[in-house]
Amino acid sequence: APRIGVLALQGDVREHLAVLGGLGADATPVRRPAELAGVDGLVLPGGESTTMTKLAVRTGLFGPLRDAVGSGLPVYGTCAGLVLLARRLIDAPPDQPTLGVLDVTVRRNAFGRQAESFEAPVAVGGVPGGPVTAVFIRAPWVESAGPGVEVLGRVEDGPAAGRAVAVRQGDVLATSFHPELTGDDRVHRLFVDLVRERRASTLRDDEPSGGG
Ligand code: GLN
């Protein structure tokens, strides 16, 4: 089974571990640099990105995290996790560092006070079976995205209609919303499949060529 870590400094870690475990992954919390070694993929949970970032810096995990995702470790960020992945932030503390592997500008707390928390159907590219129920909690959105970024899903109705809330850039997947809270494992399945494919191709590349 693919080994998938969940950054476990703060946020809804247990929910992600449960969904990943249900999909047959070997799901494991990551709190220390040593726990990053040997994972085939990583989930950055929802929570509070400023707190998560401070804790990662304080525990010495921030640098190893940036190295790991920067060298191609598949990663899926939900909500605060999307903020952590973004290259550029709007409405964040000016000194808040990010992992910077997703070529997007993310606006934190983008939906405003009236919409602290709500649900809406979002059709997500690569997820079969109709729209998912997207749960937004003080959610960010993707304000703009570079050419290498594929927008997989947008808000369909209301004042935020058209805003990008699910994106992918190679092996980096991110959503503004929280599929781990809905009992619907289809978005996580997309990520687990991506990790499995990456792992299979890495193992193939490691085989000695022409060997018997
Ligand atoms: N507003 C939070 C942040 O910017 C994200 C909220 C969430 O993860 N539910 O970190």
From TrEMBL:
The active-site annotation reads: 79 (nucleophile), 178 (charge relay system), 180 (charge relay system)
Q: Give binding positions for L-glutamine.
A: 47-49, 108, 137-138
Record-listed E.C. numbers: 4.3.3.6, 3.5.1.2
Q: Which GO terms describe its biological process?
A: L-glutamine catabolic process; pyridoxal phosphate biosynthetic process; pyridoxine metabolic process
Ranges for the region named Disordered are 201-212
- Which GO cellular component terms are attached? cytosol; glutaminase complex
Reactions catalysed according to its record: L-glutamine + H2O = L-glutamate + NH4(+); aldehydo-D-ribose 5-phosphate + D-glyceraldehyde 3-phosphate + L-glutamine = pyridoxal 5'-phosphate + L-glutamate + phosphate + 3 H2O + H(+)
Q: What keywords would UniProt list here?
A: Glutamine amidotransferase, Hydrolase, Lyase, Pyridoxal phosphate
Q: Which GO terms describe its molecular function?
A: glutaminase activity; pyridoxal 5'-phosphate synthase (glutamine hydrolysing) activity
What PANTHER family does UniProt report for this protein, alphabetically?
A: PYRIDOXAL 5'-PHOSPHATE SYNTHASE SUBUNIT SNO (PTHR31559), PYRIDOXAL 5'-PHOSPHATE SYNTHASE SUBUNIT SNO1-RELATED (PTHR31559:SF0)
Q: What is this protein called?
A: Pyridoxal 5'-phosphate synthase subunit PdxT
Q: Which gene encodes it?
A: pdxT
